Structures
1.
Amino acid sequence: MSEYIEHDKDGISVGLVEKKYFTFADPPDTMVLESNARLGPVTIAYETLGALNQDKSNVILILHALSGDSHVAGYYSEEDQKPGWWEIMVGPGKGIDTDKYFVICSNIIAGCMGSTGPSSINPRTGIPYGFDFPVVTIGDMVKAQKALLEHLGIEKILSVIGGSIGGMQVLEWAVRYPDIVVSAIPLASTTRHSALAIAFNEVARQAIMADPNWSKGKYYGSTKPNLGLALARMVGHVTYLSDEAMRRKFGRRLQNKSDFSFNFDADFQVESYLRYQGQKFVDRFDANSFLYITKAADYFDLRRQHGNGSETEAFAKAKARFLVISFTSDWLYPTYQSKAMVKAMKKNNLDVSFCEIEAEWGHDAFLLENERLSALIRGFLERNFIELQKKK
Amino acid sequence: MTGVSRGLQAYTMTQTTQTQTIGLKRFDLQVIASWIKPGSRVLDLGCGEGDLLLYLKQNKGVRGTGIENRESKVALCIAKGLSVLQGDINEEVLDYQEDTFDYVILSQTLQQVYYPERLLKSLLAIGRKVIVSFPNFSHWSIRMQVLLTGMAPKNEQLPYEWYNTPNIRVITLQDFRKFTRDQGCTVLKEVAINTHHHNTKGHIVGFLQNWRATYGIFLIGKGDKT
């Protein structure tokens, strides 16, 4: 997702932010995971923006997608070349207004951006976990985030917001902790992956595991499976775009040449783009984390976990007000999946709004600047903030 | 104008609409609003930019939901702080439990519905009462046009040509009364009004309604059950 990150074109930013860490579940009180495996100690990386108000009623929790991190907006230093991944949405006067709200962005466990994951040191062996790291689920990620919120003394969340795998965490939060979540915004998300989405994830995982350098996950300290991870990222990028987005962005244009090379160099711009994105990704992401997070996303099934197979029953416990958003050109998490969750929410008499935003950029549309998306989120948050104040 | 300043402007606008009260411009909506009891649950089908829902929320403490199929209008409604679903009214009404709403409003849309019988049945299932308004096709000016010009009539309420009109149903006040009788539901209240629907002011027509009214507004109950 990082390819879209740019400075705010009007220079409006929340400014300097700091990555913080919270560690819990120290042995012997380790965290019990959904698989019944145990994990501990668990560290979560997080960042906060804006100020918590007196009655703690202005908390917004932002949850990131596959390759994101806790760095949602702002800069780490004056020299920083890039702001956080949702700079266009989060900041003073923006869709998620840091002048009004206290924004928390939490990294996910199993990741590689500061939270405990397969590249962390296993306290029992003194070397990185690698494939000894237990398989975690979206539910486990959310339980760890809940521990962070408790640590911060937060008892109500005005809104939980996230796209894609972040949206899965949003749904999990709303169903698992109904008394804490006042409102929820799942963007370009689903209650469970389709076979198509699982298929692409599996191709990406196989690309990593087929790389001889992967060494069954024990590559730390030696050559990393960069070819496999780059290829996995290339597959991912195809699924995040759309036919139209690719036609507009690349068409059949050639990369720095006027004719075919008649060999297997990157002739087309789209080839060159994918190779570049793949290579860039290996510098910042861990191959094992990619395997664990995609598996968690594939396992995620709100119906199975919370509804005995029924989408309607899955939302029976939820109390939040929902704003569900899908994008017309998103074929990875298509609109019908958002509509299915909306239907289930309606059947449970939940207060839900739904908008299918017209956008040509495929699944990635939720990360791109979009006036309509900002206005929708701003209005929805405003309303929930006003109504929460009235209740008090 | 830059993206952010446009964003900030939209921000200021939503601020205003969520905290300041507004009046209703359309006379037919004023009539409909006057029928709705404070604090009730309302479903507005084809809610447009949400004027009626916002008015009812601010002035009558109504818990409202809207259904609208145009993305731009849905976005405007949600930005105003309303609960609105993007979708087709015929499908969206099927997901609610019985009597979820105190009132279901179908304003200026009946003339565009493919299966009015089926829709009315669904609305009476999910709502205790249904409010329907539509342009009266037997207004004298329409009758005169057909009689004198021999061509499909056009006026301010029905401004389209026969080949591009979304108004596929030709309904008169008389027709609708008969329709409700045939469907076995009860007309609890009805009003015939004379106005262009964009005008703030209008008046209620008492005499020779089927000739003189431009719009009819009906409050319908479930027949024997009510």
Note: The longest strand of chain B covers residues 127-135.
2.
Amino acid sequence: MRTMELWLGALGCAGLVAALYAALLLAPAAVGESVAQRILYLHAPSAFAAYGCIFVVAIASALYLWKRSAAADRVAVAAAEVGVLMCTLVLVTGSIWGRARWGAWWTPDPRLTLTLILWAIYLSYVLLRAFGGDDDEIAPYAAVLGIFGVLAIPAIRVSARLMKGMHPSVLAPREGGGSGLADPYMKLAFWGGAVAMLLVAACLVLLRTRLERAERETMALRRVADAAEGVAG
Amino acid sequence: MRATLAIVRKDLRIEWRTRETATTLAVLGVLLVTVLAFAHDPDPEAAPLFVPAVLWSAMVFTGLLGVERGFLLEREQDCLAGLRGAPIDPTALYAAKLVVNVLLLGATHAVVVPLTGLFLHVDLFPVLAPLALVLLLGTVGFAAVATLFAFVTVRLRSRQVMLPLLVLPLLIPLLIAAVKATEAVLGAGLAGARDALGVLVSFDVIFVTAGALLFPAIVRD
């Protein structure tokens, strides 16, 4: 287990460095874009990783509700935290890019709204786990929230489009990839970055899962110790 | 179905005896509309533009306080244990609480909506039927999510903060659609609100189904 985390982490970090090298030095400037466009190679991979984490939360939550497997619950906790981290990265890098390109830190664009709401949902998940009380008691509730979070994705997409339809935006939606990535180095930086970020996220989720397990074992041991002390005293 | 009706009848009877929730929610709604209307203090011509915002803000706050009551009621003297032990499908309990919450919020709307029209100089009477439809669809979606999570937060120490924290992010898409639908209904009647109404209906279907499917999973321990 530990070797796997080590390998994932090492590969992911090396991949990120390589992707950044390709993004900053090898890839040609995108047509009609300033140098700020290169933040895309950090922005989009973070988004992939965030979505990956969100789906892991939902699957682990469903598995927990179905089988009541404590391991699935630990994975859900870990993935939610890493998901919030990745979502924060997406929002911060996106905001910087938006400022450079549109002159505004924030604009009511459907995709921005989607990311912000998802971030809020998973932040509330983390808060529920942190302040909800006993892990065993809160786990089923958190699992329900984890599943609702994924259900919210299509809902947010639809309603965000509604919002845009009513308030036409002069700002063009951003290009995530595809035709925008003409040069092979662009492709390398983009997809290499995405894979590397997913590896880093997987490594963080595994580490956090192990930490969660250790935490719960410690809590259980402490409870046993307290009980024993109570008997002795 | 019969179990659902029985629980709805029971809750409504309890409510009718004191009328506590309906009265407090209605007064809270009135105060919220007053605060919102005067916090803005718009020109009489611009005032109608704020109607959707005021209506749905009031709805969110009264709703968040209202939906908790249903389960707080069951917590007293451990009624929930009795309901859990009863030979009924947990989904019936969820459906009953959902219906009661929609009815209570509906009663609040009956007070809040005319007052909003009054304060913001809009004659709501001609658009009453389409507006009622929008309010019903929005309230059902709201209650579907809020009822489920009220059951979650009712036993937490920090429940008053936790419920909005959990529910508001999930409800933002619904609120966007509800506000847009209200805007369209006030402007052009039902025809202009077709898209937004479609979104509202699909939210209701998704959220009610998900709530009904997930509620048994959390009620069983």
Note: Chain B has eight helices and no strands.
3.
Amino acid sequence: MTRSSDYFVLTARVLHWLMAVMIVSMLFIGVGMVASVSERHDWLLRIHKPLGVAILILAVLRLIVRLRNPPPPLPADLPAIQKLAAYASHYLLYALMLVIPLVGWAMLSAGGYPVMLSHSLRLPPIFPTNATAFAILRHAHAWLAMLLFLTFLAHVGAALYHGLIRRDGVLSSMTGIGRGPG
Amino acid sequence: MHAPLALSTRSMVLRFAVIAFVLLIIVLAFAYVGGWLTPNRLTAQRMVNQLQANAGVFPGYRRNHAKGVCVAGYFDSNGQAQTYSVAQVFATGRTPVVGRFAVPVGNPYAPDSSAPIRSMALRFTQANGQQWRTGMNSMPVFPVATPQSFFEFLQAQQPDPSTGKPNPAKIGAFFAAHPEAGAFLAWVKTARPSASYVTESYWSLNAFEFVDAHGERHAVRWRMVPDAHDDAVGGSDPNYLDADLAQRLAQGPQRWHLIVTLANPGDPTNDATKAWPSDRREIDAGTLVLTGTEPQASGACRDINYDPTVLPNGIAISDDPLLPARSAAYATSYLRRTSEEAHLPGTANTTPEAK
């Protein structure tokens, strides 16, 4: 028998998979645009900024949904070290989802760039113009994104480990399909 | 909960292999997109590395057009360009400008006469907060049409280690292989290093699009045409340009007219080596007035990246392949020099001898 607490609530599952697509796209867009000198550089950059703001807004929404709907508990027999890894990596994922877009926004502000989300929609600066701050924020943006990519890899690896090796219902609690943990 | 059936060793190994395979594919795709698997792909980093190989590394300075000076003033629009572009800068009125004149060299200590070309970069800040940044050169056409050709042009100019100078044979071979540089070569034969920044015309070189109130797009190029006319050639002093500028500004503001050229259908917008025919419609959009100058090390232009793809609503980039490459390379140069200003670890922090 499956209980509702075996699954993430529907809103959380929808947000998870929507943001998974957006964030993974964003990581590829980010490394792709800085390595490109072709017209790709321009159109990837034009997607990058509004997509980043969309991720920031959804991350705030998702944090609220998470706080109001505690996730299903981890399997009782999961080794302590794996539980710790699960908690730590999820704190990190949430932190990075919120911080990386803010660092990007602050970085453009510090560089004196107008933060244009479209041809005419401009966000206000959130940091004073300062070249030193720009350099630090620009490097931080890239390194934090690299950390997010590594955390994403660990997350995918762990999800597949739960789904294929342990088969303990952790993966299906987010997919909402297949055999429930009950 | 009921425990799942135990896996056979063979099945367990297979499942771990599937997980490893999935992760490997993700990492490889990421590395490919980031250019790490294709070291020969042309990137902004390689372009800027080539500029550094040619001129040396001068911490804190731009990687090209390194020698320059800040200027400030405003643009008085007469409203003539409004029919073609909704950009606020073209409505009748005044827009503040922070600009920079420069010599197209990588060495900030090179003499002013080292190139017969000057550049003018401008940042217009509209009242609505949107910006128009443009980098123009005092030549009517660019030598090459694509980022790849520009990179090869830079490679051809790399100093030979034995002489410390570019190898004329390599430059000759480059031009032989690039007939599109013909118009530039014909122009450069007649060009002399001017004695002043303010007597030069500056061309956008790349084509852009103006977008009007109906959303119609108009292919354009623009240039700044000076009020001051003087064919004087610079003297033997290595640094005459800044002194000339300060002296002229002390006498009064210096003016240029912004002339916008509208393309006819079929005029090339993706090839900066080709000038458009001289009978094309031109609009005098207003007057650029420069009133003051500051050294670039302390002036307002120092921390501005004059990326020509930073545009307000009403101006857009064309299909010119040089524009995204300029944007990418300028961003790389900007990150390197601001990192040096910030003294971040791993950045160049010694000032090499002036060459």
Note: The domain at 42-341 of chain B is CATH 2.40.180.10 (Catalase HpII,  Chain A, domain 1).
